[in-house]
Specification:
The protein is of the alpha/beta class and about 525 residues long. It is about 30% helix and about 25% strand. The chain is built from 16 helices and 26 strands. The chain has a nine-stranded mixed β-sheet. Strands 1, 2, 8, 9, 10, 11, 17 and 18 form an eight-stranded mixed β-sheet that branches. It has a four-stranded mixed β-sheet with strand order 24-23-25-26, with helices on one face. The longest helix is centred in the middle third of the chain and has 25 residues, at about 330-355. The radius of gyration is 24 Å and the shape is globular. The chain starts with 6 loop residues before the first strand and ends in a 12-residue tail after the last helix.
Length: about 525
């Protein structure tokens, strides 16, 4: 008899993406091994921005209340042109907020990463092995063998049915698999500076985040939590990136805003901002995620968000396959969905970055004129959420309407003890959300295997009108929503549900629709059809 793998899933890398993967898997009781060559968390900020989709993930894995104290609102970003005039404003979505949280936040990475690790390690089914470096891997049917080396140079082989490689931009797993990057054509040298500013000096600094699109030297200025301020500074040809990290160079670059007595230098690190996407995201039973799969310029703060989307997308599918609720072919939709989504968003970020990085003064003036012309003589305004695309491929049903592939909202629901966010009540498995303001074909619902949740009418009452507006905008009566909150399809007549569900079952293999209530005993069951 063939020996079973020691673990169901091995996660290589215990950074934010790897830790969130371990949280999702551990929450579902999946036997998981996590490997990381480092024993400690870097005590410096790297990622600085989150959006509401990621905060919803933190809510779902049970850490949102711990994370929020380490965040602050990420306000509008104003872009200034050659002459110092406002040429574009990237704004925030006004309330009511569609996913239950402020759409954009800044955060302090080290404490949030510590919270993620602690949460992952709290799950009984998760084994974390720090100081363990992947040195080789091999695959045979149904199993991946990982040769791991400890800090003393000793090696051992661990086996898992599946592997998620979250081991960063210089991924060992990606190298071992021989997967190259597609270069999307962006490669620019920048210096990232983090400063903890003294209280008395804060008045010197701009009151909003800013992008100085100055051809002499482009700068980004970001207001972090508390007194944390970040500058991203484009380096010029001939400047040595390592020398520019030195304190005297940093303070010289910041002289237009602050001087050395105004704060404490937290870090100064030089980077090349890239736009890269792995050619394939799956090889056998090994999957790439996070920076191992893609890298993008940081201009709207989506780097870490992309990695969280990766593992959230992949983990619910792995859980379904491991629990015999779907066939292995479901896993092919991971790369199909995420690669295209990342490529589209990276191209959009790259376009913003190319405009910011323009070093030719005449071309920069033409850029400014073009942007102002697009705004009818004023600086155009766009929200960060408009830049992030929906899913456009994979396990969605686009013929059902434009809502397919978008994120289903999360309203507040009325409760005698105070409003509750919808996921706290519905869980995060497959769900059928029904507009309760309309006549409901109850016989159609009786034969639907997907857990049902009625909003409005005789169902749950929302507090802010987000769901009612969503149903009205899409002119539908219901929506089938995936475990990662993306809309599979809209439903215009409940009588068509049986046919739609049959089609979905065929696509995912077996058609299991276990909700997160079944997978996670931490969720308290509540009535689905009635408030």
């Amino acid at each position: 008899m063939k020996k079973q793998p020691e673990f169901e899933v091995a996660v290589v890398g215990f950074g934010p993406a790897g830790a969130i993967a371990a949280c999702w898997l551990g929450q579902a009781g999946v036997k998981t091994l996590v490997l990381d060559k480092s024993r400690t968390i870097w005590n410096i900020p790297r990622a600085i921005a989150l959006d509401h989709e990621i905060l919803r993930v933190f809510q779902n894995i049970g850490i949102i209340e711990q994370v929020l104290p380490h965040t602050a609102p990420f306000g509008a970003s104003e872009h200034y042109g050659v002459s110092g005039q406002l040429i574009r404003r990237i704004d925030v979505v006004p309330p009511p907020h569609p996913l239950g949280y402020l759409p954009n936040m800044v955060f302090t990475q080290p404490p949030v990463e510590a919270i993620l690790r602690e949460r992952a390690q709290a799950h009984a089914s998760v084994t974390v092995s720090l100081g363990s470096e992947l040195v080789s891997l091999s695959q045979e049917e149904g199993s991946v063998a990982l040769r791991v080396q400890d800090e003393a140079g000793n090696t051992e082989v661990r086996t898992a049915a599946y592997v998620i490689a979250c081991d960063g931009a210089s991924s060992t797993a990606r190298r071992l698999l021989g997967i190259p990057f597609d270069d999307l054509g962006f490669d620019e040298p920048w210096l990232v500076v983090d400063l903890v500013v003294h209280d008395a000096a804060l008045i010197k600094l701009p009151p909003v985040c800013a992008q100085y699109c100055d051809p002499a030297r482009p700068y980004t200025y970001i207001i972090g939590p508390g007194n944390h301020r970040r500058w991203e500074i484009m380096l010029s040809p001939g400047e040595d990136p390592r020398l520019m990290e030195h304190e005297e160079s940093v303070w010289r670059l910041l002289a237009r805003w602050v001087e050395p007595t105004d704060g404490r230098l937290w870090r100064a690190s030089s980077y090349r901002f890239h736009a890269l996407v792995a050619q394939t995201w799956r090889k056998g039973n090994v999957f790439l995620a996070g920076d191992a799969a893609h890298q993008q310029p940081p201009f709207i703060g989506q780097g870490m968000c992309q990695g969280v989307r990766d593992v959230t997308n992949l983990c619910w599918k792995l859980i379904a396959v491991l629990r015999d609720e779907s066939s292995d072919k479901l896993l092919d939709t991971y790369g199909e969905e995420r690669k295209l989504h990342v490529a589209i968003l990276t191209e959009r970020i790259k376009e913003i970055g190319a405009a910011i990085c323009e070093r030719d003064p005449e071309a920069a003036r033409m850029r400014d004129e073009d942007l102002l012309a697009r705004g009818g003589g004023k600086a155009p305004i766009v929200t960060r959420q408009e830049i992030v695309p929906p899913l456009q491929a994979g396990l969605i049903c686009p013929e059902s309407g434009p809502a397919a592939g978008t994120i289903f909202p999360q309203p507040g629901l009325a409760n005698p003890h105070g409003p509750r966010l919808m996921d706290e009540v519905s869980g995060a498995g497959w769900r059928l959300f029904v507009d309760g303001r309309k006549n409901i074909n109850e016989s159609a619902l009786e034969h639907c295997r997907i857990p049902q949740f009625i909003l409005g009418g005789q169902g749950h009452c929302e507090t802010d009108g987000v769901i009612a507006a969503w149903f009205d905008r899409h002119r539908c009566q219901a929506a089938i929503v995936r475990p990662d909150h993306y809309v599979y399809c809209t439903v215009f007549e409940l009588g068509s549900l049986e046919e739609i569900v049959r089609g979905l079952q065929k696509r995912i293999g077996f058609g299991g629709f276990a909700s997160s209530r079944e997978a996670s005993p931490e969720l308290t069951p509540v009535p689905i059809l009635n408030p």
